[in-house]
Amino acid sequence: MQPASFRKAKSGKLIKGSHGFWAFVPNRLPPIIDLTWEFANQISESDRQLSQLAGAARTLPNPHLLINPFTRREAVLSSRIEGTVASLSDLMSFEALGVVRSDRADVGEVANYVTALEYGLKRLDQLPVSLRLMRELHERLMAGTSNSPTTPGEFRHSQNWIGPPGCLLKDATYVPPPEPEMKAALSDLERYIHAKSNLPPLVRMAIIHYQFEAIHPFLDGNGRIGRLLITLLLCAEKLLPQPLLYLSAFFERHRSDYYRLLLEVSQNGNWTEWILFFLRGVAEQSIDALNRANQLQQLAAEYRDLLHKKRASSTALKLVEVLFKNPVVSPTSTKSVLNLTYVSVQKNIEKLVEAGILREVTGRKRDRIYVAQQIIDILEKQDARQLRLKL
């Protein structure tokens, strides 16, 4: 790490570690932030869009149908920032069928993100966002992965660093605090998370996200845990009744700015630009989430109307609900969910194929797999506002 790059550092200080390297130790929170009209307007806009999403989440007829697909989309995009290539279809195939393509071995890491996120959302009933919860999330995120540290679920006991792939410590772009300073910084962060504040909640979340990334307390998985904590904080602070807002799509779309602005806070104390970026992400993704939610609800209603016109059975309608939780199915994976025989499930799957809701993708006579492509399209398209539903 080059000390000259941190000459104007206002958000922390450089120290020399025991091995002679320079490391950055962030200051205690909260920082001093310069308020401008642009800043105030962006806070207002982000609050407004998030409130609209929260209001819609309270009135959606079937919000539970959206939680599964939204969490899985987040898992794919947050993991993609870290270099995975598994798609939403890969993840859903893996979850429903245990199928992993040979060139998509990293799908297990994405599935772990889902496990950690769902665990964290349930754990909020007993435990606040805290260092303990961070460790529990990390344990589930890293379980069984190829690059899993020897002690998943524990904060690091050695130095880590950030830089180009394969770089050594001396060539790092950023070196987080050594272990003793890291422990103190984590304790300060936990106190700040639990303390009362006059800052708007979304501004606090932007600050907390930076601080966690600057501390970088795990040997691996810091980015994913940091982004996962945003969702947990939104729910813990009652800003959303359902976990429908995720920022990884925005961060992935603007990946270079995401990393650059985080680093600029450390190098020159540029809190304003980072927080504005974070707030724009909240506004954009709130609009996007509401559009996707409305389109998924609309599609579900159109599927139901179509099946009613065809005088389909109640089982076929239940199968449609299953599709919104996982659009990749097989008779084997579905029969236990619906508590029906293989033959009965296959018959109802064929009805959905005839209705154009499902299509078979293997071309095989046995062990066939079916996909509700329209649902996946809504989730995978970059801009939900450009989607048009056609049956």
Give a brief rundown of this model:
The chain has 391 residues and is mainly α. The chain folds into 2 domains: 3-287, Orthogonal Bundle (Fic-like fold), CATH 1.10.3290; 291-386, Arc Repressor Mutant, subunit A, CATH 1.10.10.10.
Major sheet description: 3 strands, antiparallel
The CATH superfamily of the largest domain is identified as Fido-like domain
The ordered string of helix (H) and strand (E) elements is: EEHHHHHHHHHHHHEHHEEH
Low-confidence stretches: 384-391
Tell me, what is the CATH class of the largest domain? Mainly Alpha
- Beta fraction of the residues? under 5%
Spatial arrangement of strands, main beta sheet: 3-5-4
Helix share of residues?
55-70%
- The radius of gyration is 23 Å
Inertia-based shape: globular
Task: Write down how many β-strands occur, each being a DSSP E stretch of 2 or more residues.
Answer: 5
Quaternary structure state of the chains depicted: single chain
CATH architecture of the largest domain: Orthogonal Bundle
Distance between the termini: 56 Å
Question: How would you describe this protein?
Answer:
It is a single chain. With 391 residues, the chain is mainly alpha-helical. It has two domains: 285 residues, Fic-like fold (Orthogonal Bundle); 96 residues, Arc Repressor Mutant, subunit A. The strands form two sheets. A three-stranded antiparallel beta sheet has the order 3-5-4. Strands 1-2 form a two-stranded antiparallel ribbon. The radius of gyration is 23 Å and the shape is globular. The chain starts with 11 loop residues before the first strand and ends in an 11-residue tail after the last helix. The C terminus is likely disordered.
